[in-house]
Amino acid sequence: MEQTARQIVLPVLGKISNLLVQQLDSLLGVEDQILCIETQLRTYADDYDHAKNEKLLKEIIHDLEVVIDELIIDSAHRRKRDDFIRYVFASVDQPLFFFHILALVDLLHHYRLRMKLEQLIKIFKIYIDILEYGSWVCALLTGGKASGLWHESVGPYDLGISSNVSLFNALATRKEISPAVQRQARYLRDKFRSLQDFLKQSKSKELSEVGMAWMEELGDVCRSAENVVGLFMDSKLQKNKNGKRTFTKLVWSSRNFISQHKIAQKLAWIEDKIRDIYSRRYEAIPSPVRNFDPPRKYFQSLNRMITRIRAADQLDDQLDIVSFNDDVDAVTAQLLKEDPRCLTISIVGVPGIGKTSLAQLIYDSQAIANHFPHRVWVSRSGLNTSKQDIMKQILGIEGSDLYRDSKDTEESYIRRVRQMVNAFFMDKKYLVVIDDSYSSKLRNAYEFWRGMGSAFSDISNGTRILFTVCHLWQAPPVTETDFTYRLHLRTNDESWALFTHILKVNIPPEMQYLKGRIIRKCGGSPTVIVKLVELLSQRDATLEEWSRVLDELNQDEETWSAILEEINNYLPLYLRRCLFYFGLFPAGYKIPTRRLIALWVAEGLGHQQGDAKSPEYVAETCLRELINYDVVQLTEKKLNGKIKTCCLPEALQVHWFKRAQEANFLQGHSDISSTDIGVIRRLADHLQQNDVVFDDIHRSNSVSPCSRYRDVVSFLSFDTREGSEPGEEIGNFLDRCISSNCFRFLWVLDLEKVYKPKLPKAVGQLVWLKYLGLRYTYLEMLPAFINKLLNLQTLDLKRTCINTLPSSIWKMQKLRHLFLEESFCSAFVPPQEESSLVDLQTLRGAFVGEDSPVRNGLDSSLNITNLGLKCKISVPSQKAAMSSQLVDVENWVRKLKHLQSLRLKSFDESGLPWDLHLRSLSGHVDLSNIYLVGKLKNQQLVSELPGSLIELTLSASGLVEDPMQTLDKLPNLRILRLFSRSFMGKKMLCCFGGFPKLEVLKFWELELLEEWNVEEGAMPNLKDLEIRRCMNLKLLPSGLQCIKTIRQVKLTKLPILSSSLEDKQGEDWKKIAHVRHVCIED
To answer: From which residue to which does any coiled coil extend (predicted)?
Structure first.
């Protein structure tokens, strides 16, 4: 049977009343919130007969009741604790600070409950706003705009409501006032606020006679209230000034008792009047939406908000910094920049991604607490929170001083606000966090900064403002003082770390089998991870039970609604086309970035007409944008932070995949029947028997017409079975289709990981082919028809067994990316005529021997950005010839002015590192990655590296002088790896101020190294340290203790050090005891 509004809220109201009357000791730190929600509930019960959306209302009331019950239980436990303390220490005088500590413990515990209550107040207020203001709130919840509002201070007339709110708030917070009077003051404060909100939202400016009379009556009550409270407060203040009695002593005097008794009577009269006025507000100012019955979809919007807040609460409670390490470091670095101006940083991400959690981690961090003596956290308290409301919370003031009155010009108003801001921040360096993370429709941060930002322009003490917003358009526009940080879906490692941390139990070995599946199902979403842990914690920890939960996890769209909304409402068309391409890959498939970008370039996706940048740069930018929109998960990162693999979360592929089919972007791997399938443009073989194309590809007796493949532009196979069968089936299918005049416009043929595909001669007819992917196919020979594929842009032969390239490779003038397998010495033959690969940008894994065409061959390719060569002598007698080749390589490298990555290896005939010739690289301003294996003939090279260098790996370099005192001056170096025999000395030193950005440092097999010293102030950003097989290293450097940023130290096979580290005591252990993860292996 349907319940009335009063019946639903009455039980919890009774509990609140009991709590307020009998158990005030349990309200430490939350009394104001309890009284506020009591007022809201009583008003709702008085105003509404029937409960709109009863289920949602009951959920809100249930959440509130949980908090109230916790307070009641806490109160009982606290009384037992206090009684026990009195009994035990009855004969002992306890010091005062002992009881202060107990009170502090209670306050800290109630801080969490207070935050929950504030969120429930916010949610319930939005629920009431939907009922009262109908279309206005609905417009906000669905992304529309509100119109026809009065001035954002108090409405069409200045009735003094704002000043009354301030007065009652001041009265309620006076410690000398009795609890009964405080409760009256809080009730009236909240009632006046409700009236203020009502006047703000009313659309009509024309008042009837009834409305005018009502307004006059309200004005009279406002003036009476202001007089009563104002006189009472002034009289007490005056008595203090005159020194007749202290205010605290007055509390216990008979005269003061009468005074408080009188104020209580006056407040009761005002309470009756204001309750009557409030009940007649819609008679006075009729609202066209008063009887508005909000459509279900608006309550659904609120319900989604509640779901996100609950998930965020759970995430905040269970947060593990490991899952947000890189994000905390990145935002903290911006906050700690040495810039005296007031800077803003906006953390941007869809609801439920962890913005508030990240902001809280930063806010609570020791580095931030040390740097900012003052911090303030501002939460948006409702749909109609104005910029003045936010500013009042920042400055900690009440009243109407921040509102613009009729006499103010824009200039005079901003000048007045600037003076208030300057006075407040004059000698105080603040971190201000403005948390607007639950609002996906409003532009509070943007509007606040547009209206109030100029008031902060004079601040020069390093104050910072941190916003959390759901969309980029909600944040202040990017300028030299306003920055944004996009919070992404978690990587696979971060997801697993968060999952295991929240689960808080050891996962049985047999359950580790589900790790990959759990990661795929969660898709990097913290909200989904929290939800999954909640579901699993209610089941037995068995393979069967957990598998069942995983099967059911993403069957509804609700958990992913925020990201689906992001795609539907905000994703530009060119990004949607790129996103459609993910549908070609199996669900949860980790796609290598180099593969995805090359495929997009081949199809022209992402590249817009008129783009001056290269297609690869534009494609990579599109991928970063999709990750920024939180619709694509960055599953794995490289050491340098770049994207290694990515995927479309499995749930999004399920719920959004149909759109790709509706857009005719792809077909051929779905559950539709063969009669439904039309012309196929993109074909992907997932080896699923329910695919309509399965029989065509894998059964030679298929009678399906090949004509459906006439217009295919991309064919990708994911048949990774072992044996010869996959290669034969693919070959037969290609032969049948091409012979039937299909595939003639094919751009992409990607057979990565198909074992030894039998490529028919007919493939030579695919003259428009731009991408041929044969990685991990282990082909032994490149077919002769390759000489006809002159439009190829990408040829990927890595992890094949091909050792000789045909001479026709030189004719591929459009070739941009060539990947070869260095272990099989894939060698070029000299060009038969004058030709060069002028567009070549990537050449990886190429072999250079004594006869390789470097001069007048390879060295004519001058646009290379990514170069990887393996140089090797065939027989000892060819050393002179090989030295000449290495000099030619050196001259070629010197001419590559666009080079970004260089990987050079030099070996003798036995496969041992040999000479490496390189002159100064300081002129290569784009070079960011260097990997060198071989003895450096030019030992000064370490001092001739470009300032752009980010990653450096040296192996067998034979350096005699300590390289650290030279390399430490590279301003952007983040990764340094010194491998076997790269340094032949015994001592190394890292000096103060050196390696300012170094994050990863690895020493492997530096067998002669005995002593490594690190001065305080060196490597201030080091995060990851690994030392392996440095057999003679005696001590860890004491300077490691000063590097607080280190997250992980891995020490392997260090015989001299092992004994002093094994018991996790002693001097060496103290140097790394502060590190979160220490791994020591023998």
So the answer is: none
Cα Rg of the chain, angstroms? 35
C-alpha count within 13 angstroms, C-beta hemisphere, residue 719? 25
Q: How many CB atoms lie within 10 A of CB 407?
A: 7
User: Amino acid letter at 331?
Assistant: V
Angstrom distance (rounded) from CA 841 to CA 862: 8
Nearest to 680 by CA among 690, 688, 691: 691
Query: Contact 799/819 with Cβ under 8 angstroms?
Result: no
What is the chain's length? Answer: 1082
Main-chain phi, psi angles of 312, to 5 degrees: -65, -40
**Nearest alpha carbon to residue 354 among 301, 308, 388, 298:** 308
Alpha helices, DSSP H, located in 410-478: 410-425, 444-452
* For the chain, the helix, strand and coil percentages under 3-state DSSP, each to the nearest 5: 50, 10, 40
Nearest to 439 by CA among 304, 548, 316: 304
CA separation for the pair 169, 582 (Å, rounded): 56
For 852, counting Cβ atoms within 10 Å of its Cβ (0-12 exposed, 13-18 middle, 19+ buried), the class is buried
b/e burial code for range 1006-1015 (CB count within 10 A of at least 16 → b): beebbebebb
746 touches 773 (CB < 8 A): no
State the pTM of this model: 0.76
Average confidence (pLDDT) per 10 residues, the chain, 1082 residues: 70 76 60 76 72 73 78 73 67 57 56 69 72 52 40 45 81 73 80 80 64 83 84 63 40 46 84 86 68 55 59 56 84 92 93 88 90 86 66 78 75 86 88 78 75 89 92 89 93 91 80 89 90 86 88 75 82 88 91 96 81 89 94 92 93 74 56 54 91 86 74 95 94 93 94 96 95 96 90 96 90 95 90 85 96 93 96 92 96 96 96 95 96 96 96 97 96 97 96 96 96 95 96 94 92 87 82 90 84
Contact yes or no for 629/566 (Cβ under 8 A): yes
Say how many CA atoms lie within 13 Å of 662 toward its Cβ.
6
Tell me how far apart the alpha carbons of residues 760 and 738 are, in angstroms, rounded to a whole number.
10
Q: Which of 464, 452, 400, 346 is nearest to 169 (CA)?
A: 400
Distance in Å from the first CA to the final CA of the chain? 70
Q: Spell out a b/e string for 823-837, using b for 16 or more CB atoms within 10 Å of the CB, else e.
A: ebbbbbbebeeeebb
Rounded CA separation 563/580 (Å): 15
Distances from the Cα of 400 to the Cα of 77, 164, 198, 900, angstroms: 43, 10, 17, 58
CA 655 to chain centroid, in Å, comes to 22
SS3 of 225-279: the string is: HHHHHHHHHHHHHHHHHHCCCCHHHHCCCHHHHHHHHHHHHHHHHHHHHHHHHHH
